[in-house]
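4.2 Preliminary Data

To establish feasibility before requesting continued support, the project team ran the inverse folding procedure on a target of 75 residues. The structure was first converted into the token representation described in Section 3, and no sequence information of any kind was made available to the design step. The complete token record follows.
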């Protein structure tokens, strides 16, 4: 069994963006001991990938909001 880990972001405009963080899987689908087949290093890499994408999304959002404000015409 193979499984993907994805993050789905939805902006204020309603536009959705999906990013795949990683894929994993268990060689033996009947295994009940570790159905996700993750090692500690896999867990750390998965968490780092999720954090990287969430931080990047926050930075992109902040950058876009500041960019819009800086181009407003004075009244």
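Position-by-position output of the design step:
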């Amino acid at each position: 069994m193979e499984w993907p880990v994805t993050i789905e972001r939805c902006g204020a405009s309603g536009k959705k963006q999906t990013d795949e963080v990683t894929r994993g899987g268990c060689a033996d689908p009947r295994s009940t001991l570790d159905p996700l087949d993750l090692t500690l290093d896999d867990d750390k890499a998965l968490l780092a990938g999720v954090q990287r994408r969430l931080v990047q999304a926050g930075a992109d959002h902040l950058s876009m909001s500041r960019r819009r404000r800086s181009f407003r015409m004075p009244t």
